[in-house]
Design a protein that fits this description.
Elements (H helix, E strand, L loop, with lengths): L1 H11 L9 H13 L3 H14 L4 H14 L3 H13 L5 H17 L3 H14 L4 H31 L3 H14 L4 H20 L3 H14 L4 H14 L3 H12 L6 H17 L3 H14 L4 H13 L3 H14 L4 H13 L3 H7 L1 H5 L3 H13 L3 H13 L4 H14 L3 E11 L4 E13 L4 E13 L6 E13 L4 E14 L2 E15 L4 E11 L4 H5 L3 E14 L2 E12 L4 E14 L4 E13 L11 E14 L4 E15 L2 E17 L2 E12 L17 E13 L1
Antiparallel strand pairs: 1-2, 1-16, 2-3, 3-4, 4-5, 5-6, 6-7, 7-8, 8-9, 9-10, 10-11, 11-12, 12-13, 13-14, 14-15, 15-16
Helix pairs in contact: 2-3, 3-4, 4-5, 5-6, 6-7, 7-8, 8-9, 9-10, 10-11, 10-12, 11-12, 12-13, 12-14, 13-14, 14-15, 14-16, 15-16, 16-17, 16-18, 17-18, 18-19, 18-21, 19-21, 21-22, 22-23
């Protein structure tokens, strides 16, 4: 069997004769090596070593050479190392193995070990041309491999978004290979990414420097980088710098039409955000004149118009976008914002439903504002907290939550007023009230003390002290209830008396347009000291309605039926409507008012003509004043008639100035005057007959503090 195996081996190797010993295998291997057949030679050397392991040291170096020559240099490397470490090997053979090991390391592409090994051998054999050539090739190849690894590492940092780390890595490679276009493009991307990171960190000086370097590295994209730079300056609130960049871009003749349109959009936003809305609208108009369906232009103009309070025109822009792109999120949010501006919070929530299902943070904050306007601060706060907890729109959400929190902070109100009438009655009032809110603002409770002093020539002097308990409760989106209980003590020359009065209202919000109220109260009949001394009370029952078809139009009406404790009865009504004629910082409303009442009979203790009717024109104006003050002005002018025969002009005017001392405090000063010729006649013996118009004037100051 052994002979057969040897025969087959020799046949497979093309050996014409059968070797009988390890020495013959080795000899034949050398013969095949000299014929340029290293594969076959290596097989025979391996067989010789297997047959005679004791002669391994003699043939190992030759075996390693044939492996290296046959392309199996990697397998030869450990054999050369074995030759070098064998203690009985001659120095000459060890030195030769050291040289060949260096070459084998190179041939096996183990460059990190090959380069130092070849360098060490080449220093010992400076005339060896093969070693020098191998060293040069290995050194070049290793540099290429290392550069490739650095390149890959740099691009991996870029792809992962680690721009700050990618910049120095790619900068070094670009300095080494400045002609590599792909490398320069990647380096420019890394610079732009790092610039965006610095801009988000509010380090705009460094961001601008990085954008400028990106444009220098990749001039073909200089316009793109300049636009990005301008956008980040805009987002950072550096509007002057952003405007300068956008205008520089527009002056470039090579700017493409698409880039020009994008640059104009950025400039329009710059104007809008820096408080120049008219200029912003002008640019949007220019863009839309060329392309009336340009979605970004329509959305941008709609947002500016909404900021100006022009909700109807703004709404048209958003609806035009939605007619083409029904799922455009910016247009959906914009339309919802205009709907809220038109005082339709319930309708707005329906419009936002698709984005709310997707948990869009901006939509959720809009919905929170809608709930807040509906008197549901609990739902508003829950939505805002969710957005902030998710790390989205943190600044806007936090500001909104602070507003809600401030509204629910306990409030102390101090109110001082003094009124005097042409019939001689003078009334001085001092009130102090503390209001506390619970359940995220759904429930409130107030405790108030009031001191009222009545003095007059034909009136009894009365000092009244009241302790008032007030509360309100919002049950859901539709129902709310309010109530106040008054515990009163009156001191006069007739003695001391005690009384209890109250005032309640149940409100029903049907929708965004209609609100109804049901009223029930018990109070003194008229604001005179005679009614207090005589303890004449009026038990009132009434209904009211409020209508608001738009932010510029509102109307209200009320009807009350009263049963007085002296047996008298009264039916009163009032209706008013007004329309906004001037919008903006300074607003003006004009309207009309109709009011009147009837009594069953007259009384000596309170003004009670058999009938009274008033037709008035009304005006309301308010707006800002210098140094943080605000003004408010209300006026009415019309005609009044009182039965049996009093009639004439009636007018009233009230002015107020107010100022926030801080976020937690404000002060307001007011003065008013009312005059009516309808009260000049005799309403009862106690009132006498007056020859001039009845007048009432009042001054007051209100201080509010939160803590």
């Amino acid at each position: 069997m052994r002979a057969i195996l040897l025969f087959l081996i020799f046949i497979s190797l093309g050996v014409p004769a059968i070797a009988q010993s390890a020495e013959e295998f080795a000899a034949r291997a050398r013969q095949l090596a000299s014929q340029g057949r290293p594969d076959d030679a290596a097989r025979l050397f391996r067989r010789a070593i297997e047959i005679s392991p004791r002669k391994r040291d003699d043939w190992l170096s030759e075996y390693a050479d044939q492996l290296a020559y046959s392309g199996a240099a990697e397998a030869a490397v450990p054999l050369y190392r074995e030759v070098m470490n064998a203690p009985l090997q001659p120095e000459e053979k060890r030195e030769s193995a050291r040289r060949r090991l260096a070459l084998a390391l190179f041939w096996s592409w183990n460059l990190e070990e090959a380069v130092p090994a070849l360098r060490a051998v080449a220093e010992d054999y400076p005339d060896d041309v093969d070693l020098r050539e191998a060293l040069n090739r290995a050194t070049t190849a290793l540099a290429d491999v290392e550069a490739g690894a650095k390149r890959l590492a740099g691009f991996e940092m870029l792809w992962k978004g680690d721009y700050l780390a990618a910049v120095p890595a790619l900068r070094q490679l670009v300095e080494e290979r400045p002609a590599d276009a792909e490398l320069r493009s990647g380096f420019a991307d890394a610079l732009a990414g790092a610039a965006r990171v610095r801009a988000e960190e509010k380090d705009f000086k460094q961001a601008v420097a990085l954008f400028d370097e990106a444009a220098q590295v990749d001039p073909a994209r200089a316009d793109q980088f300049a636009r990005q730079e301008a956008e980040f300056l805009l987002n950072g609130g550096l509007w002057n710098d952003a405007e300068t960049r956008f205008r520089e871009l527009l002056e470039r003749p090579e700017l493409s039409e698409e880039d020009r349109r994008g640059t104009l959009l950025g400039l329009a936003r710059t104007y809008a955000w820096s408080g120049r809305p008219d200029e912003a609208v002008s640019i949007y108009d220019t863009l839309l004149a060329k392309d009336p369906d340009f979605a970004s232009g329509l959305v941008g103009r709609g947002q500016v118009l909404a900021d100006l309070g022009n909700y109807r025109r703004s709404r048209e822009d958003f609806l035009r976008v939605l007619s083409v792109e029904p799922e455009n999120a910016d247009a959906i949010r914009g339309r919802a914002r205009t709907t809220l501006g038109l005082q339709r919070p319930r309708e707005m929530l329906l419009q936002l439903a698709p984005l709310l299902e997707e948990q869009d943070p901006a939509a959720r904050l809009l919905a929170a504002r809608a709930f807040h306007s509906m008197g549901r601060p609990d739902l508003a706060a829950d939505l805002a907290r969710t957005v902030v907890a998710q790390g989205e729109a943190v600044e806007e959400g936090t500001t909104f939550l602070e507003t809600i929190w401030l509204e629910q902070t306990p409030l102390i109100t101090l109110d001082i007023a003094h009124a005097w009438q042409s019939d001689g009655l003078r009334i001085t009032t001092l009130r102090g009230r503390q209001t506390t809110m619970f359940e995220d603002g759904l429930t409130s409770f107030s405790l108030e003390t009031a001191l009222i002093r009545y003095r007059g020539n034909n009136f009894p002097d009365v000092n009244q002290a009241s302790l008032r308990f007030s509360g309100s409760r919002r049950f859901n989106d539709a129902f709310e209830a309010r109530g106040t209980l008054f515990l009163n003590i009156q001191d006069s020359r007739e003695g001391r008396s005690r009384s209890t009065t109250f005032d309640t209202e149940i409100g029903f919000n049907q929708n965004d347009i209609w609100r109804y109220g049901l009223h029930l109260s018990r109070r003194y009949a008229g604001d005179t000291s005679r009614a207090i001394v005589e303890r004449i009370f009026a038990n009132d029952f009434g209904i009211s309605a409020r209508f608001s078809s738009s932010p510029e139009m509102r109307a209200a009406g009320r009807m009350m039926w009263s049963s007085l404790s002296d047996g008298n009865r009264r039916l009163s009504f009032e209706a008013n409507a007004s329309r906004q004629v001037l919008a903006g910082d300074h607003q003006v409303w004009l309207g009309a008012e109709l009011r009147g009442f009837t009594y069953d009979r007259t009384s000596d203790f309170y003004w009670s003509p058999s009938s009274n009717a008033n037709v008035l024109g009304t005006m309301q104006a308010f707006g800002p004043l210098p140094r943080g003050w605000r003004y408010g002005l209300n006026g009415s002018l019309g005609y009044s008639r009182s039965a049996p025969d009093n009639q004439g002009v009636t007018y009233g005017i009230r002015g107020q100035i107010s100022r926030e001392i801080s976020k937690k405090g404000s002060i307001a000063l007011s003065i008013s005057h009312t005059s009516s010729l309808a009260r000049t006649g005799e309403a009862g013996e106690g009132f006498g007959t007056l020859k001039s118009a009845w007048n009432r004037s009042e001054i007051g100051v209100v201080l509010q503090l939160r803590f």
